[in-house]
Amino acid sequence: MSLLRLVDLSTDIALRRGAVHALDHVNLEVRQGETLGVVGESGSGKTMTVLSVMGLLPPGGRVVNGQILFDGRDLLAMAPDELRRVRGVEMGMVFQDPLTSLNPTMRIGAQVAEPLRVHQGVSKAEARERAVEILRRVGMPRPDKIVDDYPHQLSGGMRQRAVIAMALIRSPRLLIADEPTTALDVTTQRQILELIDDLRDEFKMAVILVTHDLGVIASRADRVAVMYAGRVVETATTEELFRAPRHRYTEALMHALPEAAQGREGRLYSIPGLPPDLSQPLTGCRFAPRCRHATDACRATDVPLVRAAEDHLYACLHPVTEAVTFAPRGAGEARPAAASEPILSVRELVKEYDAGGKGRVSAVAGVSFEVKAGETLGIVGESGCGKSTVGRLVAGLEEPTGGQIVLDGTDIGALDRRARRRMHREVQLMFQDSYAAMNPRMRVDGILTEPLEIQQVGDPAGRRSRVTRLLDQVGLPTRALERYPHEFSGGQLQRIGLARSLALEPRLIVADEPVSALDVSIQAQVLNLMRDLQSELGLSYVFISHDLSVVDYMADRIAVMYLGKLVEIGPASQVVRAARHPYTQALIDAVPSPDPGHAPSPATAIRGELPSALNPPTGCRFRTRCPLAQDICRTEPPLEGGLHQVACHFPLREEAAAARP
Amino acid sequence: MARYLLTRLGQALVIVILVTLITFVILHFLPGGAARAILGKEATLEQIAAFNHDMGYDRPLWEQYALYLQRLVRGDLGYSFQLNQSVAEAITQRLPKTMVLSLASTALAVVIAIPLGVVQAVRRNKWPDYTINALSLLAYATPIFFLGLMMIILFAQVWPLLPPEAPQGFTLGEVLADPAGLVLPTVTLAVLTVAVYSRYVRSSMVDNLNENYVRTARSKGLSEGRVIVGHTLRNGLFPVITLLGMYLPALFSGALVVERLFNYPGMGLLFWQSALKRDYPILLGVTLLISVATVLGALVADVLYAAVDPRVRLKASRS
């Protein structure tokens, strides 16, 4: 029986003139004890749907049509006080950003137990006791201490546990999780998702899991609703949806995943264009303008949901008939190694920060690697592992504490300041948030010309033609030159960011999480572009990302970092499919696979949190979390091997024959 | 924490010394001179020279300054011939009265400004917000002497509800015995402060109401009142604490005008009269006191901030 049912729900967000029709006749249901996954890109309405249910719509937001039936009663017809009680007691919500969703000046215990105090009039002492109990249940270490801590004393993963505890303390019948793990590392993501699964079974809750990540949906949801432009376009059981998707948008989403690329040379399918503007009147299928199968009928008539099977609805006139295949793991073959000279060679790189009298933070501890001309080196690891610091050191934004950076045969450390500044031309950066990395008051032409002016390249006319060509290279029209950064979408901004890093014709681009903020379909566009430019211009990339499947798709070789150390480096296919370090294996297993049949092995799961880089563990830094650790791990393992090197006393497997030199 | 305080106190000392140096130099380059002011128009040049010699005013400036600092260390702020009392005595007599005025007006301002700012933030871009905004801009733009005059005309003459003059008592007790006389000066001084504070409270509350933690609080089914008072207000008031510390000394400039206007015998009036009479020792003493109050105000604000914000508390205890 359904616990929550949305009937023809429409929600508007008022604008100064008109309104955004964020939801358009959404019909959904969640049954007791099941997890409904809601998936879609930004602006699809998935978050608006759950905010409508919780009554947390942003200013100007209003449900304009339909019913929200919770246990048979329409929430929209309830008196405000009663409604607050239902939402406060019978529903619980977990938000995306655990760093900001707790009150910074309130103790954890007080926040977690507040629903009890308000709705059930529980005494202060009992509330604290219950808070400790629920914190323990969500796997918080030392809950009796944490209960009196403030949020800033907790890591991201621990804060998310606190938010979950807050939602669960009321024993809700419905738990809504809106991108609960998007801001977390994969290893933490896995722990949090498992926790939600366990608790659902224990508390017999219904769960709505909102996410943009098909992998998370595939491994956790019982049923899935795919949303696009404010409408539900397809619902099915998870297994059915991934086995036989019917809607062309669902198919396109799956095709755009890096996992779906056929072979290493394959291009990603990218959905052209952008989602429609929901403040305008729309007719026909809303995906039609971006769909490769669209016909005139799609554009002219409203497409209703039709039934494909008992539990499978879709709204598409030209449904998918063939099945989507994911490249099975291990199918990729290595690109022939570029046999050229290294463009970048990093030797025993060390970076430490002063921690104000308490010792030193060891951010990068003796990292060595090479990048050859035309090659992509991927660097992966959890946040705090030092991967971004390595990128900044290589790009010359920070001075290393020790070690050498040799760029194109020249040791950067040995150069004087002027020569070093000239060397900067050779290495350029590309950022995760290009908007934040651009001066909002500068037009695009100014942004692109600036590096040329600083390095005194060419005359004004020459610079102008260079900038026009750059825009052309990244696939933007010339008229973009006269516009300001805020006028562009996320994907377009990444293109501009890429154009800026290309302005000085560098040989190496350090890309720090360049697609992490983008939707899958836009991510595919940017990744394709980066690859095209690489083969066209002979660029090398250092591609830094927390997302293993993206790195696997982009990189020729992958370096895995843990707490400032390089623990494994080798050809991408080897590292991902025949990992030798237990940490690498744990990372790989933690990535949720978009293939529902793929069950992660619990044996390799790592628990707990990254230790502090202030006084890191001696010897192998991973030993405090490693399932295989022995006494010998107190001594530091050297990085050994041929092409596929690992720093581990007990490597999981021998180097594959193909990788030996 | 102790180390942090010591560092801050050291910085404060340096600032105070610099302020005395600057004041000292400026005062001594002003035309006229103390001798003429004290000895009167009839004094001969010889008498003036003799006075300057006795006072050490004919020595090089740096020597005078060194002497001044030397006395300062011993707690000697100098002697005012015009008042015929020591500077320390003159100040200690009047300081409490100015503090009563400043504290009363600040308290009044805070009590009015916080609810105003909160109402503005909650009813943002609706008529209550616009109305309060217009009024506070008006208060902001009105010169304090004009405001004081209007107060006297309206509430002491048109409607004779309150005395037009502040209490004239010599001791603090005498002043406090006449609270009605304190009303107009306190309100006059508070009006500008309300305008400043309410704007800070508004913008800080607006920022906080948009924070994710407020959404989390709402998701618990809390009433709007509890969301605002229990969650947002505390975070929203942090900027006011800083402002309190920074603004307390600034009140002195308001007190200068208000005390003159209402003829209230506090520090402001003392400074005013001393400036007209070129009573250098008093001017120096008062300036010194205000600079000390300024740096201490900032320090107290930071310490208070650390006391109420757990995030800062942690950092402070670390450093």
UniProtKB/TrEMBL annotation, chain A:
GO cellular component: plasma membrane
UniProt keyword Cell inner membrane present: yes
Stored CDD domains: ABC_NikE_OppD_transporters
InterPro entries to which the protein is assigned, alphabetical: AAA+_ATPase (IPR003593), ABC_Ni/Peptide_Import (IPR050388), ABC_transporter-like_ATP-bd (IPR003439), ABC_transporter-like_CS (IPR017871), Oligopep_ABC_C (IPR013563), P-loop_NTPase (IPR027417)
A Pfam family: oligo_HPY
Membrane topology recorded in Swiss-Prot or TrEMBL: Peripheral membrane protein
Keyword Membrane included in the entry's annotation: yes
BP GO terms, sorted: peptide transport
Chain residue ranges for the region called Disordered: 591-612
Localization: Cell membrane
Keyword vocabulary terms for this entry: ATP-binding, Cell inner membrane, Cell membrane, Membrane, Nucleotide-binding, Translocase, Transport
Domain of life: Bacteria
GO MF term list: ATP binding; ATP hydrolysis activity
SMART domains: AAA
Cited SUPFAM superfamilies: P-loop containing nucleoside triphosphate hydrolases
Domain ABC transporter: 4-254, 344-588
PANTHER family per record: ATPASE AAA-TYPE CORE DOMAIN-CONTAINING PROTEIN, OLIGOPEPTIDE TRANSPORT ATP-BINDING PROTEIN APPD
Family statement drawn from the similarity comment of this UniProt entry: Belongs to the ABC transporter superfamily.
Protein's name in the database: ABC transporter ATP-binding protein
UniProtKB/TrEMBL annotation, chain B:
InterPro entries attached to this UniProt entry: BPD_transp_1_N, MetI-like, MetI-like_sf
Top-level taxon: Bacteria
Membrane-related topology note: Multi-pass membrane protein
A GO cellular component annotation in the UniProt record: plasma membrane
Keywords: Cell membrane, Membrane, Transmembrane, Transmembrane helix, Transport
PROSITE patterns with a match to the protein in the record: ABC_TM1
Keyword presence, Phosphoprotein: no
Pfam families, alphabetized: BPD_transp_1, BPD_transp_1_N
Transmembrane segments: 12-30, 99-122, 134-159, 179-197, 236-262, 282-308
Annotated localization: Cell membrane
UniProt domain ABC transmembrane type-1: residue ranges: 95-301
One GO biological process term: transmembrane transport
Listed CDD domains: TM_PBP2 (cd06261)
Keyword Transmembrane: yes
Family, similarity comment: Belongs to the binding-protein-dependent transport system permease family.
PANTHER family: DIPEPTIDE TRANSPORT SYSTEM PERMEASE PROTEIN DPPB-RELATED
Protein name in UniProt: ABC transporter permease
Organism: Nonomuraea rhodomycinica
